[in-house]
UniProtKB/TrEMBL annotation, chain A:
Leucine-binding protein domain segment(s): 39-380
Family: Belongs to the leucine-binding protein family.
Pfam families: Peripla_BP_6
Top-rank taxon, per record: Bacteria
Alphabetical UniProt keywords: Signal
Organism this protein belongs to: Ornithinimicrobium tianjinense
Secretion signal, residue range per the UniProt entry: 1-20
InterPro entries documented for this protein: BCAA_transport, Leu-bd, Peripla_BP_I
Keyword Signal set for record: yes
PANTHER family per UniProt: LEUCINE-SPECIFIC-BINDING PROTEIN, PERIPLASMIC BINDING PROTEIN OF ABC TRANSPORTER FOR NATURAL AMINO ACIDS
Keyword Signal in annotation: yes
Protein known as: ABC transporter permease
UniProtKB/TrEMBL annotation, chain B:
Signal sequence coordinates: none
Keyword Transmembrane helix belongs to the record: yes
Keywords, in A-Z order: Amino-acid transport, Cell membrane, Membrane, Transmembrane, Transmembrane helix, Transport
Name of this chain's protein: Branched-chain amino acid ABC transporter permease
UniProt record, GO biological process: amino acid transport
GO molecular function: transmembrane transporter activity
Superkingdom: Bacteria
Membrane topology (UniProt): Multi-pass membrane protein
Transmembrane segments: 12-31, 61-80, 92-110, 141-160, 189-211, 223-251, 257-277
UniProt keyword Membrane present: yes
UniProtKB/TrEMBL annotation, chain C:
Family: Belongs to the ABC transporter superfamily.
PROSITE patterns: ABC_TRANSPORTER_1 (PS00211), ABC_TRANSPORTER_2 (PS50893)
GO terms for biological process, alphabetical: L-amino acid transport
SUPFAM superfamilies on file: P-loop containing nucleoside triphosphate hydrolases
Name of the featured protein: ABC transporter ATP-binding protein
PANTHER family noted in UniProt: HIGH-AFFINITY BRANCHED-CHAIN AMINO ACID TRANSPORT ATP-BINDING PROTEIN LIVF
Gene3D superfamilies to which the protein is assigned, alphabetical: P-loop containing nucleotide triphosphate hydrolases
Residue ranges of every copy of the ABC transporter domain listed in the record: 2-231
The entry's keywords: Amino-acid transport, ATP-binding, Nucleotide-binding, Transport
Species of origin: Ornithinimicrobium tianjinense
Record's keyword annotation contains Acetylation: no
Domain of life: Bacteria
Example of a GO MF term: branched-chain amino acid transmembrane transporter activity
The keyword Transmembrane is assigned to this record: no
C-alpha cells in the first residue's frame, strides 16, 4: 500500500503544473468572472491499478496538451491567464473517488473533474458534481446510468457506454452471421449490465442468446466455463470480462481450439492496451467496439505522433477523449469569458463538435450524452502489423445516432 | 459423460498450479513455522521472470522451467537470510505480517516497473493445439501442465521419503525441538528449504505464463485459494498439500460447471466442512493444528 | 562429568527452577525424584539447551556448554529421551532410529545390535513410528539415543505408565548401559525402580534440590519419601 500511496503522491505533486501565458497582465479578460482568478482542471483516475495504462498518468499529459494547445491558439487573447492541471488517484474505489472529488472541488479549487473510470466511482463523483454545482465530464466509465436514471445538470459522458458497446459489437457480429450466442460475464454490476445490453442488441439484430454464464470476479481459470459454453455449439461466445480476466479467458479460448470449430470470440469491452500487453497473436481476428483509433485517419495520426513524443507511447481512446473534453471545456470558457459552471453547461448543451476525438459529435442537451461516430474494430494478424501499436483494422463505422441509446429510451430528467 | 471427463481434466490441470505452489507453502510452514503470505507474489514473480527473460534474452519455455526456479531459489535464500530469519525467534505473527507486507511491496514494484496490463508470452508450438482421445478433446497445454506437475510432485515426494534430507525435513516439520536435541542442526536446512518452497511457487508461475494473464495482481487471489488448500490438506502436510491442491482444482471445475457464480465459494465451504470434521485438515496431525 | 550451578529457569513471570546445584560423575547413575511440577522435566530441558529463559551454568567435562544450542550439546554427548518419548509419526521405525547422527562411535550401538536387543523394532522397521505400542515406543526412544553413542543419558521418566515386564526390561538396559561406563541422569517417580538402578539420588522440590542421598540412605528412607511424593 505504502508504495502505491507514495507513487500517487508523487504523480499528484509532479503534475500540479502551473502554466502561465507569456504576456503579463492580459488584456481586459475581466478576472472577476473566474473563481480564484484561474481555471483548474482535475484528472481523477486510476494512477496505479488496472486502468493505469488505459488512461492513468498519460491522460494527465493529454489534458496538459489540451491546455498548451489552447494557450498557443489564443495567446494574448485568452480570457484567462492561469490554467492549472491537477491529478488524483481514486484506485477505482467509489469511497476514495467520493472524498477525492470533494477535495478537488473544495480545496484544490477544481472547476471541472475529468475521466473517472469504474462505474461506481463515476456515479459517486457525479453526485458530488451535482451537489457542488461543478462540472464533471466522464470518460473512463461505461455505465449508462450517468446519462440515464442518475443523470444531472453538471455531468457529461464523453466517450462510450455499455449500450454503445453492445450496439456496436452485438449488432455487427450478429448481422455478420454470428446468430447463436453464449454469453460469459463477470457477476457484478458492469458484467450484468453488459449481459443485458448485448442480449438486447443480439436479439434485435435477429440472433439468439443461449446461456448467460455468470463467473466470479476476479478469476484466472475459465476453462470449464468455456467448455460449457462451447458444448451448446454456438456461433459466437461473447465475453464481458475485462482486464486480466479477459486475458485469462482469451488465452484459454485459444488453447481450447474453439476458433477451429467455428466458434468466434466477441469481446464486450476491450482496449488497445489489452492487445498491446498480450500481443496480436493472442487476439487475432477478435472483434470489438472501439470509440477511437489512433491510426484511423491523418488527423488522428498527427495527434498520436505528438502524443508519442510527449509520452513515448501511442494514445488509447481514453487519452484522446480526455484531450478532447479538456479542449472543448476551455473553448467554452473562452467563448463565455467565465468558468461559471451553469454558463458552461448552457454553452455545451446541444453543441455540435468535430475535433480529433469527436467525429460528428453532439452534446445532447436532454441527457448530456455526447454522441459521436464509433467503430467496430478487428485485431490484425501478426503479418498485417507494420509498426508498434498498429493492431486494429476498422471494419465499420457506426454513425453517432445509431450507436448510442435513443433519447426515447432514456430515463434521464435533468430537473431531478 | 464426455463433458464430465473434460471437467475432470480441467479441474486437475487447475489443481496442478495449486498443488505445486501449496507444496512449497507447506514445506516452508513445516520447517520454519512461517505462513508465507508472499507465496502468491512469488508465483507472480515466476511468471514475470519467464516473460521478461523471454523478452530480454529470448529464454524459451523449456529453459525457463529450469532457470526461473533456480533464480527464485536464490531469491528465497536472500529473503530468508535478510528478513525472515530475523523474526523466526518471535511470535509467528511477525513473519506473517512481514511476508504480507512483502507481497504488497513486490506487487507494487512490479506494477511500477511493468504497469498493470500484463506481459505477452509465447509457449512452444509443440504444446499448442488439442489432443484427441476418442470423443474427448483436451488442450495439449493443460495435459502437459497436469503431467508435468504430477511428475514434479512425485519427485518432491521421493525426495521427501527416500533421502536423508527429506527425512530431516519431515522430522523437523513434526518436532522441531526434538530434532535439534537429537543433534541435527535444523537451522542449516531452514534457508535452503525456504528457497526450495519459493522455487516451487516460481515454477507454478512459469507453468501459468502461457495459460494465464501475466499481471502484477495474478498472485493476489491465488494466494487466498492457496491458503484454503493448505488448510484443507493440513498445515505443513506435504501429501495433504498435493492432494488438497488437486481436490480444490476439481471442486472449482465442477463448481464452475454446475454452480458458476458459487465456484469460489464452494472451495471455502469445503474448507469449513473439513475444519469442522477434521480440524487439523485431511492429512494434518492433531498436534500441528 | 556433568555439573550444574545455580540454574534458574522461567516461564514468563513464573520461576520453575530456583538455583539448582547438582553433579553427576562419570559412570554414575543418578536419579532425580520429586513431586509433579517440581521442575524435573524443566531441568532436563535446560540441560539440553531447549529452554530459552535460563540463568546459571552447566558444564560438561569441565567445559561450559551454557551458550550452546541443542544440536551442539547432542554432538558433545548428551542424549535426551523426553517424557512423551518423542517418536515421529512421519518417520518409519528405522528412520526414527537413524535420524540422529552417531556422535561417539566407540560407545554407539549398531543398528544390528539394536535389532538384536529389540526384535520387535526389526519386525516393524517400515511401520510409522507412532504405530508402535507405548512400551515399544519407549524401547525405540532408548535405542535411538543408544545408537548415537551418547555419553550422558538424560532419561525423563522412562518407566511411566508401562507394564512391570517392560519396566524390568528398561532396568536391564539402564544396568547394561551403566556397565559400559555410560553416565545416566534419570528422572524417576518410581522409588523402587530408582533405588534398584541408581548410585545416588537428588530430591527436587519446588525448583531446588531438597536432598542429596546415596542409595543406602535413599532405601532406608524409602517410606518417608513415598509419603513425601504422595504415593
Ligand atoms: N510450558 C510451560 N509454561 C508455563 N509453566 C510451565 C510450563 N511447563 C512447565 N511449567 C511449570 O513449571 C513447573 C515445573 O514443571 P515440570 O514439567 O518441569 O515439572 P516435573 O517435575 O517434570 O513434573 P511431572 O512430574 O508432572 O513431570 C510446574 O509448576 C509447571 O506448571
Ligand atoms: Mg516431567
Amino acid at each position: 500500500m505504502s508504495t502505491k500511496r507514495l507513487a500517487a503522491t508523487a504523480v499528484v505533486s509532479a503534475s500540479v503544473l502551473v502554466l502561465s501565458a507569456c504576456g503579463s497582465g492580459g488584456p481586459g479578460g475581466g478576472g472577476g468572472d473566474f473563481s480564484d482568478g484561474k481555471v483548474v482542471l482535475a484528472v481523477l483516475n486510476d494512477q496505479s491499478g488496472v486502468y493505469k495504462d488505459l488512461s492513468g498518468p498519460n491522460s494527465v499529459k493529454a489534458v496538459e496538451m489540451a491546455v498548451a494547445d489552447f494557450q498557443e491558439k489564443y495567446g494574448e487573447e485568452a480570457v484567462v491567464d492561469e490554467i492549472e492541471v491537477v491529478a488524483a488517484d481514486h484506485q477505482n474505489k467509489p469511497d476514495i473517488a467520493n472524498t477525492k472529488a470533494q477535495e478537488l472541488y473544495d480545496r484544490e479549487g477544481a472547476d471541472i473533474i475529468l475521466d473517472v473510470p469504474t462505474s461506481s466511482a463515476a456515479l459517486a463523483v457525479a453526485t458530488q458534481a451535482k451537489e457542488k454545482k461543478k462540472l464533471f465530464i466522464d470518460i473512463g466509465a461505461g455505465t449508462t446510468e450517468l446519462t440515464n436514471g442518475q443523470c444531472n445538470k453538471y455531468t457529461f459522458h464523453w466517450a462510450y457506454d455499455t449500450y454503445q458497446l453492445a450496439q456496436t459489437t452485438g449488432t455487427a457480429v450478429t448481422e455478420g452471421g454470428g446468430k447463436e450466442w453464449q454469453i460469459i460475464y463477470p457477476d457484478y454490476a458492469f458484467g450484468q449490465d453488459m449481459d443485458k445490453s448485448f442480449t438486447r442488441a443480439v436479439e434485435e439484430a435477429g440472433g439468439t442468446v443461449g446461456d448467460h454464464i455468470a463467473t466470479p470476479f476476479p478469476n484466472d481459470n475459465f476453462t470449464t466455463f468455456l467448455t460449457k459454453a462451447a458444448s451448446a455449439e454456438p456461433d459466437v461466445i461473447g465475453t464481458m470480462q475485462a482486464g486480466g480476466d479477459l486475458i485469462n479467458l482469451v488465452k484459454q479460448y485459444n488453447e481450447g481450439g474453439y476458433a477451429a470449430d467455428g466458434i468466434e470470440l466477441a469481446v464486450g469491452l476491450m482496449f488497445i492496451t489489452d492487445i498491446h500487453s498480450l500481443g496480436v497473436e493472442a487476439f487475432e481476428g477478435v472483434q470489438f467496439a472501439e470509440a477511437w483509433y489512433w491510426n484511423h485517419d491523418d488527423e488522428n495520426r498527427a495527434w498520436a505522433d505528438r502524443f508519442l513524443e510527449e509520452t513515448g507511447t501511442r494514445p488509447s481512446f481514453a487519452h484522446a477523449a480526455n484531450y478532447s473534453a479538456a479542449l472543448q471545456y476551455l473553448e467554452a470558457v473562452q467563448a463565455e469569458g467565465t468558468d461559471d459552471a451553469d454558463t458552461i453547461v448552457g454553452n455545451f448543451e446541444g453543441k455540435e463538435i468535430n475535433d480529433v476525438f469527436l467525429k460528428n459529435g453532439t452534446i445532447r442537451a436532454e441527457d448530456h450524452r455526447v454522441i459521436h461516430d464509433v467503430y467496430l474494430a478487428k485485431v490484425k494478424s501478426p503479418d498485417q502489423v507494420t509498426e508498434d501499436w498498429d493492431y486494429e483494422e476498422i471494419v465499420s463505422t457506426i454513425p453517432a445516432e445509431e450507436a448510442f441509446m435513443p433519447l426515447d429510451q432514456s430515463a434521464c430528467s435533468m430537473g431531478g | 459423460m464426455n463433458e464430465i471427463l473434460q471437467y475432470t481434466v480441467q479441474g486437475l490441470a487447475a489443481g496442478s498450479f495449486y498443488a505445486l505452489a501449496a507444496l512449497g507453502l507447506a514445506i516452508i510452514f513445516g520447517v520454519l513455522g512461517v505462513v508465507n503470505f508472499a507465496h502468491g507474489a512469488c508465483y507472480m514473480l515466476g511468471a514475470f521472470a519467464a516473460a521478461v527473460l523471454m523478452d530480454l534474452v529470448g529464454l524459451n519455455f523449456w529453459l525457463a522451467l529450469i532457470v526461473v526456479p533456480v533464480l527464485m531459489f536464490f531469491f528465497g535464500v536472500l529473503l530468508e537470510r535478510l528478513l525472515v530469519s530475523r523474526l523466526t525467534a518471535l511470535d509467528p505473527l511477525y513473519n506473517f505480517l512481514l511476508t504480507f507486507g512483502l507481497s504488497l511491496l513486490l506487487v507494487d514494484l512490479v506494477k511500477r516497473e511493468y504497469g498493470v496490463s500484463g506481459q505477452p508470452y509465447t509457449r512452444p508450438e509443440i504444446l499448442g493445439g488439442q489432443l484427441t482421445l476418442g470423443a474427448l478433446r483436451l488442450p495439449t497445454y493443460q495435459v502437459f501442465v497436469l503431467v508435468f506437475s504430477l511428475l514434479v510432485c512425485l519427485g518432491v515426494w521421493l525426495l521427501m521419503t527416500r533421502t536423508r534430507i527429506g527425512m530431516i525435513v519431515r522430522a523437523s516439520t513434526e518436532k522441531s525441538e526434538l530434532t535439534r536435541a537429537l543433534g541435527i542442526d535444523v537451522n542449516r536446512w531452514v534457508t535452503p528449504v525456504f528457497g526450495f518452497g519459493i522455487a516451487l511457487a516460481g515454477l507454478a508461475g512459469v507453468l501459468a505464463a502461457p495459460f494465464r494473464a501475466i499481471t502484477a495482481d495474478m498472485g493476489s487471489s491465488f494466494i487466498i485459494i492457496l491458503f484454503a488448500v493448505v488448510v484443507i490438506g493440513g498445515l505443513g502436510s506435504i501429501v495433504g498439500a498435493v492432494v488438497a491442491g488437486f481436490l480444490v482444482g476439481l471442486v472449482e471445475a465442477f463448481g464452475q460447471a454446475y454452480a458458476p457464480t458459487l465456484s469460489q465459494i464452494v472451495i471455502f465451504v469445503l474448507m469449513a466442512v473439513v475444519i469442522l470434521i477434521r480440524p487439523a485438515g485431511l492429512f494434518g496431525r492433531e498436534e500441528n493444528a | 562429568m556433568l555439573e550444574v550451578r545455580g540454574l534458574e529457569a522461567f516461564y514468563g513471570d513464573a520461576q520453575a527452577l530456583h538455583g539448582v546445584d547438582l553433579v553427576v560423575r562419570e559412570g554414575e547413575v543418578v536419579t532425580l525424584v520429586g513431586r509433579n511440577g517440581a521442575g524435573k522435566t524443566t531441568l532436563l530441558r535446560c540441560l539440553m539447551g531447549l529452554h530459552r529463559d535460563v540463568r546459571g551454568s552447566v558444564t560438561l567435562d569441565g567445559t561450559e556448554i551454557t551458550g550452546l544450542g541443542p544440536h551442539q550439546r547432542a554432538r558433545r554427548g548428551l542424549g535426551w529421551v523426553q517424557d512423551d518419548r518423542g517418536i515421529y509419526a512421519s518417520l518409519s521405525v528405522e528412520e526414527n532410529l537413524t535420524l540422529p547422527p552417531v556422535t561417539h562411535p566407540d560407545g554407539a550401538w549398531s543398528l544390528a545390535q539394536v535389532y538384536d536387543a529389540f526384535p520387535v523394532l526389526a519386525d516393524r522397521r517400515r511401520a510409522p513410528g507412532t504405530t508402535l505400542s507405548g512400551g515399544e515406543q519407549q524401547m525405540l526412544a532408548l535405542a535411538r539415543v543408544l545408537r548415537t553413542g551418547a555419553r550422558v543419558l538424560l532419561l525423563d521418566e522412562p518407566s511411566e505408565g508401562l507394564a512391570p515386564v517392560i519396566v524390568q526390561r528398561i532396568r536391564d538396559i539402564v544396568q547394561q548401559v551403566k556397565a559400559n561406563g555410560t553416565t545416566v541422569l534419570l528422572v524417576e517417580q518410581n522409588v523402587r525402580f530408582a533405588s534398584s538402578v541408581a548410585d545416588r539420588h537428588y530430591v527436587l522440590a519446588e525448583g531446588h534440590v531438597a536432598a542429596d542421598l546415596d542409595n543406602e540412605e535413599f532405601t532406608r528412607r524409602q517410606d518417608e519419601l513415598l509419603a513425601y511424593l504422595g504415593m
